[in-house]
Amino acid sequence: LAKKEGRNNFQFFDESLENQTERYMLIQHGLHNALKRGELAIHYQPKYALDQGNIVGAEALLRWFSPELGTVSPAEFIPIAEETGFIVDIGCWLIERVCQTMNHWRKQGAVLAPVAINISPIQFHRGNLYKTLSRAIADHAIDPALIQIELTEGVVMNRQQSTIELLHSIKSLGVAISIDDFGTGYSSLSYLRHLPIDEIKIDRSFIMEITDAGSLTDTRLTAIPLAVIDLAKNLNIKLVAEGVETEVQSNFLRENGCFIIQGYWFSKPVDEAAMLGFWRRA
Ligand code: C2E
Ligand code: MG
Ligand code: MG
Ligand code: MG
């Protein structure tokens, strides 16, 4: 009924607590059906090497088109799936589906590079991740060196023995470990020395600060990307810049020694078929 009264009213009602709760419930229930009904899809965003001029990897990103709600962003539905624990089922499906797709790509003649899978902290701690990964890799005859997992700093920061052991067992499978949204979590960096980390991804919020107008004169805006570039180099950890949208950002990164970029400037996330096209040209 709010809709009939016009856009402004609708927005007003939409922001009410009642509507927020209702949307939360719709998403929560919708997600359970989404898996069964095949409403979830996976898009892939290439990682591009500025120095080599080719694609050196891709990140798998969940997409949900709900018949009732339309397109729902993972930024909205993943936190809800985490609260209910359903993220574990979604994550298992995703790992299986990515490996299946990679096998299909290979049969289509693609020359693959590592594909990164985002792992929720809930899935990491409760999801039987080692078994899920090793089974999917074996079932689809995937070279484990072509699989990478992305974790956030919160996961690797805690010094629980179980975390350290799981990281090492995943490494022993041959799967690489990447730290996502680097710089936005906690301030301790010591885990980088102690844990088997292969790659870090500078968060988009830092890359956004690199603009023609500001950053080339205001060194505070580029201080963090430059420090992270140094850090990665000295620790001998691979570095990726995420959310690279402009030529200015891309040039700045190349000139300062960060060669792998992911972002709209090279490509938005694309569907399986379009990603196959990228692999074929790689
Ligand atoms: P993320 O892992 O940091 O993924 C990068 C996000 O930045 C993606 O948003 C991507 O579409 C977006 N992005 C990439 N390049 C650019 C750019 O140049 N400009 C801008 N403005 N954005 C860019 P997306 O796909 O909406 O995903 C949001 C977040 O949801 C992801 O952030 C990740 O934390 C989570 N997510 C997505 N898929 C999965 C999944 O399969 N499992 C889990 N656990 N989380 C996922
Ligand atoms: Mg990610
Ligand atoms: Mg990221
Ligand atoms: Mg991010």
From TrEMBL:
Record's keyword terms, sorted: Phosphoprotein
Domain EAL: 24-282
Keyword NADP: no
Protein known as: EAL domain-containing protein
Shown stretch of the complete protein: 829 to 1110 of 1110
